[in-house]
Amino acid sequence: MKFKSNWLAGTSVVISVVALCLCALRIEPIEVGSGTVVGVGVGLIGVCAAVMVAAQVYGLHYSEEKMRKELDARADKILNEANYNMKKSLFRNEMVTIVGANRQGDWAIFTEGVNLATGYIADLKDGENALFLNDYLLESNNLFPFYKQMNESDRRKFDNCIIRISKLVDNPRPLLDAFNPETNTDKYTS
Q: What is the C-alpha to C-alpha distance for residues 2 and 150, in angstroms, rounded to an integer?
């Protein structure tokens, strides 16, 4: 790849070396005449031209690589910002879905919404939204204990979400206590 991009510089170096060799063959060891000086001058001019062309090609290649790296860094930054904003928007959308499913008592959609929202929070490593979801789950569970209403597969998925949320909040004890299967069994059977 590098040879293909620098073929002009390589060709000029080869031509310069050939010109110097031809001049060396014409130089007679004892006599230095005007022809010899002209031959050596032409050879040196050829070498200088080759060095100049090679420097231009190298400079162009270096500038191109530097610009490519800078553009890639900017593109990555823009892509990361867009990804962050998209996940924040998707989190808000899932919170609306969670609230609606909680009011309707559709625990499969509720659990799936909590799972997706937890995934967005974990990807963003967003403690603020994790705390928001934590507070919402605790508050809604205090108003209407929904944990017992879930089927077993939804409960397992919900428990995994609770564990993931608890890793992102500062004080996970209330959340873990509220949705602990052992304490919930005792709480709802009495």
A: 63
List alpha helices for the chain, DSSP H: 2-5, 7-26, 34-104, 107-124, 127-143, 152-166, 173-178, 181-189
Assess whether 181 and 109 both reside in one domain: yes
> How far is C-alpha 34 from the geometric centre of its chain's CA atoms?
66
Calculate the CA 90 to chain-centre distance: 19
In a domain, 82, yes or no: no
Exposure pattern of 162-175 as b/e (b: 16+ CB <10 Å)?
bebbbebbeebeeb
Which pLDDT tens digit goes with each residue over 123-163? 888 888 888 888 888 888 888 888 888 888 888 888 888 88
Q: How many angstroms separate the CA atoms of 50 and 11, rounded?
A: 8
pLDDT for 65-75, tens place per residue?
A: 899 999 999 99
